[in-house]
Amino acid sequence: MNFLEEKIVTDGIVKEENVLKVDSFLNHQMDIKLFEQIGEEFKRRFSDEKFTKILTIEASGIGIACITARYFEVPVVFAKKSKSINLDGDMYTAEVESFTHKTTNHVIVSKKFISEDDKVLIIDDFLANGCALQGLIKIVNEAGASVKGIGIAIEKGFQPGGKIIRNLGYRLESLAIIDNMDSTTGEILFR
Amino acid sequence: MNFLEEKIVTDGIVKEENVLKVDSFLNHQMDIKLFEQIGEEFKRRFSDEKFTKILTIEASGIGIACITARYFEVPVVFAKKSKSINLDGDMYTAEVESFTHKTTNHVIVSKKFISEDDKVLIIDDFLANGCALQGLIKIVNEAGASVKGIGIAIEKGFQPGGKIIRNLGYRLESLAIIDNMDSTTGEILFR
Among A111, B51, B52, B167, which is least packed, fewest CB within 10 Å? Predict the structure, then answer.
């Protein structure tokens, strides 16, 4: 097990309906030393890539993205969630469905902050169905920029998001891929 | 002028109705090297305090809080915005009005992540009317913890938030306090 898998086993809580609570260190309280290990590990895995920008989505992607950005020395842009579509044309937008909250949000990124020269590393805390990630990829493509890498902290490998993204040929690195978890025993099986 | 005031003068845009756009480096695209300077400066100003936790609010406070946390070696908790009040009693909640968006949100923090022993540093990117900040202070007080410091990147000194908080006796450090700005000339006057 790597450092993140160990942390998940120690401090994560498996709930019913395939919910994994990691709010004590990842997406409510944030363990910054752990984030530094995550950033360092992304840097190691993508050491051959020259990114110009990191793109993430509010809110829980921001912390990991900012700490990771220190290792790549690039700025971070975070996509904002918005109920309304921006009509004045200065924003890239995508529709993103949330399975957890049973809602559809628009995510928006100002056109000023992604240009066609950008080589983008997308960072997020979780990958399950992959709707948020698909929205971010759409936005990068719309800008004429290229997605050179995707770094995810925790992937739920039993949900289809990661497989789809890999099938599409994107370079996706998930630091912990969960293939199975059991809310009665609390057991977690990593790939 | 300090480093942040210089950045605001160079890259900030003064809009009508006292709006300052700093989305190219602070709250949409994030300049991580600048955030490191901000974190270092908070560490210098609060060098005599022993914090146990940083509290911020989603979304644009998270980046600064995470980078600042590296200098204090403490975890970050971010308050979540929520349309609904959580009823099961495991959350601290506060009501926060947004003048920009003309809405009222609830902000929530899990009771697990602030305890009465905590000495809290509150971090946010902006202080204007201070509604968000008041909500965060309420939550810390409800937890029986103490607010030992408040670090703000940009304070709009011509709006009442900062004055109220200082009147209440809190130790508030704002790295750039704007006393006046003029959307016709683009001029910004710092305190």
Answer: B167
| Any B CB within 8 A of A24 CB | yes
Question: Per residue in B17-57, pLDDT tens?
Answer: 999 999 999 999 999 999 999 999 999 999 999 999 999 99
A113-to-A53, A55, A116, B4, B59 alpha-carbon distances in Å: 9, 10, 10, 20, 18
Give the bridge partners for A92, in sequence order.
A109
User: How many beta carbons lie within 10 A of that of residue B93, not counting itself?
Assistant: 18
Q: Do A80 and B66 touch (CB under 8 A)?
A: no
Phi-psi region of A188 (alpha: psi -120 to 50; beta: other; left: phi over 0): beta
> What pairs with residue B156 in β-bridges?
B178
Q: Nearest-CA residue of chain A relative to B76?
A: A30
Specify the DSSP element, H or E, that contains B20: strand B19-21
- Residue B18 in 3-state DSSP? coil
Contact of A135 with A107, CB cutoff 8 Å? yes
Nearest to A63 among B25, B62, B73 (CB): B62
Q: Tell whether pTM > 0.90.
A: yes
